[in-house]
Amino acid sequence: MAPSPPPEPSFDALKPLKVQGLPPAGYYIPNFITEEEEELLLRKVAESPQPKWKTVGSGRRLQYWGGTLTKSNILVPEPMPDWLSAHPDIVARIDTFLDVAAGLPENSDAHALGVNQVLVNEYQPGQGISPHEDGPAFRPLVATLSLGAYTVLDLHHYISPSAPSPPMIPTEGSVGRAIAAVPLGHVLLMPRSLFILSGSAYSAHLHGIAERSADWVVRDAAVQSSTVDADGAPPVVVANAPLLGDAEVQAAIASDGGWRAERGTRVSLTFRHAERVLKGGAFAMVGGRMQRT
Ligand SMILES: O=C(O)CCC(=O)C(=O)O
After folding, report:
1. Mean pLDDT over all residues of the chain?
2. Which residues form the Fe2OG dioxygenase domain (predicted)?
3. DSSP designation for 131
4. Is the dihedral of CA 215, 218, 220, 223 positive or negative?
5. Domains along the chain?
6. What separation in Å is there between the alpha carbon of 143 and the centre of ligand 1?
7. How many angstroms does the Cα of residue 120 sit away from the middle of ligand 1?
8. How many Å separate Cα 62 from the centre of its chain?
9. Is residue 144 within 8 Å of residue 269, measured between CB atoms?
10. What angle do CA 29, 258, 268 make, to 5 degrees?
11. How much is the pTM?
């Protein structure tokens, strides 16, 4: 029987990387991978066969690696490709990083995360993802690697629809609960960074990316919230400014004018663990037919 993971690892070792001012807990690790690894991962994503791509929403494209979920949220596993599991060994690196941070004994069979699925999202400037939860099918701990370009991730919370004139985002699909239009916080995700979302930030809040092609990041909320720059970007304060590991961007954010940037094509890799996995091993095409391996 598979060993059960610790219920809610606490990442004491990551305290210095904890994003302050967000619900617990988000952690930001700048430059988790090298520029060469970023280039390789971008190339492998781009070279993936056409049927791997799905297009959703406003044209955002995505890929699943490691398998997809059935309607009843069971992962039908598939082997991870070499470029995620071996060269570079990015899946193992993320698992080891989180195991060490969670204080798990070395060589333990249990993993804090135990990546078994990787979701790739590709955003063109102007594309985003509406506020959503990844849901209970997954362990409440995900790690997202950003490639190619930065973005600003927003954290949202639910509100009571009976609150007086609440500014709300109309809910889509299954959630059916009112979402506050004004995000609780923002996180600037730079290329090659790893952002870890866990605990109640994962399970009781929503995350999303506004559909913008430019951003304006300012140092504090004193900048009029009604102000909008020439590109239509409202000024935002990002909770992880001290953790960015990029002196130039940090200096620009701290300056009177703030940091303005235009979005490029961004690819994100979200590493997660589906709790329920179809038994019997992975599937593969053998002689034109799907078989368990
Ligand atoms: O691209 C990102 O950083 C977030 C992706 C995401 O939230 C998702 O696919 O569920």
Report:
1. 88
2. 114-275
3. E
4. negative
5. 19-213+263-277 (2.60.120.590)
6. 10
7. 8
8. 13
9. yes
10. 35
11. 0.89
